Amino acid sequence: SRQYLHFAEGRRGGHPDDRYGQQMARLAKALKDPKLINDVSAYVASLAK
Prior knowledge:
The structure is a single chain. The chain has helices spanning 2-9, 19-30, 34-47. It is globular, with a radius of gyration of 11 Å. It is mainly α. The chain has one domain (2-47). It is built from three helices and no strands.
């Protein structure tokens, strides 16, 4: 969740060459519901296993 907040706040995803970071930053700024953010974070974390 911390990294998600960094994208939402503009701390991450701002480099012009970071296509995926920019994509994540746009998503993070659009997604505002805390429960949905937690659900998405849990889903993404489960993919790494």
